[in-house]
Amino acid sequence: MSRLNLEVQHTAQICRFYLRWGHGQQLTAQVPAPEAVFECYQIWQQAYQQFYRQFRARPGISGIAGLPTQDWRSLLIKAEANLLKQFHDWINQAELLPIRGAIAKAAYAQPAVDSTCVDLFLTCEATLERLPWEAWHLEAEFPLKRPVRIARTPANIRQPSTPRQRRSKLRILAILGDDTGLDFQEERQVLQQTRHFAEVHFAGYQANQDNCQLRAKIRQAIADPLGWDILFFAGHSNETSLTGGELGIAPGETLTIQELASDLLSAKQRGLQFAIFNSCQGLAIAQALINLGLSQVVVMREPIHNQVAQQFFQKFIQYVSQYQDAHTAVLSACGDLRHDPNLTYPSSYWIPSLFRHPGTTLPQLRPTGWSAWKQQWLPTRWEAAVVTSLAVLSLMNPVQNRLLDQRLQVQAIYRQVTGQIPQNVPPVRLIAIDKNSLDRAQIQRRNPLPWGYLAGVLNQLAIHHPQVIGIDYLLDEPATQTQRDIVALRNAVRSLVSNHQSRIIFASILEGDRELGVHPEIGIPQPNWGAQGYTNSADWFLPLPRSGQPCKVLCPFTYRLTIALTQTSADLPALLPTQTLPITEFSRELRQFWLQPIFDFSLPPDRIYERTPAYELWQPHGLQNIPHLKQQVILIASDRYAEAGLDDQTKDQIPSPSAVKYWTPPNQPTRPAITGGELSAYAIHHLVQRHFVIPIPDLWMVLIAAVTAKRLTQVRSPRLRHSVLSGIGLSSVLSLQIYISGSLLVPFVFPITTIALYLVPSFRSKSYVS
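User: That's the sequence. What structure does it adopt?
Assistant: Structure tokens below.
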């Protein structure tokens, strides 16, 4: 933890500042003594003591009697503001800029070790120690990455601290002293509520108890052989110049710290680390206890009102039970007093002070069992809201499609920049029946397309003895065709199958459990090869046989084409080793496609298929001089003429993905849509090349990111946290390569958003007390 030591000495009219840190670094500076601050302090002190009357101090505090009745609340608020202004004017003088700058630099720099704050150990004497140093906020002058916490430490420390003894439960000794004019019921209840993590033992004043016996019992309790972790005192107290302060243990009866020194030393040797005195004027008490070797002591520098003391202690224990360290808990409790919406207790927030023995660590509860698991893993309300919102968004198909579209465009850019574009021969020859082809053939009725035109296309293809032909037209209604066209198509199909040994796969569609496909008058019964395959598929996901569904019965159109191209046996071969997973089938109930391969539009279309307009089949060059034609699927499909599709509502196209637009050559117009034939070409390419890009579901990544972010919120080192965040950013870039090398699409928008939103509260909380 980053630590600096600041000593302020007041000599005559001069105040000298000595700042020491690191490995022997030090700075010195001097400024005139803050006489104006001292005067403002006196005015503030008088208003403070007049406004708060029920103090936890020995009777007889000076300056609270004999003054006329005034609006002390208003005077106190004004005096507080004036005192703070004068104090900050003094501490912010130009002569002290190097001191302030060095502190700010330590708070701005990334720590070399686990640290969320910078601790400034302050040593000052006499009147200077009365000033509200805890109200000094350097973040008003400098940009700080970590808050600066001020811990006081006395000038003289004779005893070393003792390492804390580990216990299954904290042992707390609560001494309740003289309750004249006070009520300790609140403290009792708060302490009793700590029994889930502490053993609490009470000692102190009881009515009709002999004072000598009381003194002996308190001393015996402090020196208990089992030892204590925390000593708590509530009651009246005062400062004394020679005895380290005195504690009111009964009406008219006190114990000084000097009298308790031997017992406190014994307790320290047995594990006593921390003491809190919920009583008045504890500067001398704190200095004496740190001098004896205690690690930390919380005291009230000024007289403290009974209700303020109760509220501070309640808040302090609350934050300690939430696993804040003692210093942070003090600052958090003071922050609650300061931000009281009703300003019930003006000026009270700067009264508590933490004194620390240099070189010791702060006590802090560590959760165990269910509490540890709950703190480590259960989300806060904010975190639960983040996860729920992003989980719902991640299940929305429009959101998924939009993110997938953008990701594939980024992948396309990455492929081009890194030169990772495959050079294989496209496995598909797309015979595109487009408007130009239909116009040249003078075909007026285009939906449905005359089967006679398809017959002509097949006859032209027969010249080249194709191995596999796919017809991406639905041929289920001969009633819409002339008898001449039906006969022509039937003869063309039979000629290709019988004379040229071509394999023809027809398109079909699924309507429920019924498949609408090629009419028997046209199709050749080929049960071993399957004469048809359905074209139903989601726009972004590769159509695959359903898990547990025999492909002999129902099979995707592109899957059958791939089998026909890659298998040579006349019998039905072993199917491609690719089917949807059971978890994919399960996800369909949520309208999802978990782990189903996607169309990889990051590949340029010219690596997927070679396009030949249908009219070129009648040209002299046609498909001549294409040596790899027999290694391609010949896919006959519509190509963006207005009448294509089943009807006006079911067009044979979808909007072009951004990646496909990216691959459009600069000298060509960007096509607004991609056809069903082009989608089929992508599917055939992926099946032939075994190119299956598996997307990790966004929902899964949200949950994984939530677990990661939860751990990040528990990382206390800013340097380690920034390293982890940098690693996450780097992994987002690496995911682009993983997509290509590992065929795995790892989303990063939802995970990064999850982590960023998880960390929002910690970024907002840059200081403990603003």
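The two ends are 21 Å apart (CA to CA).
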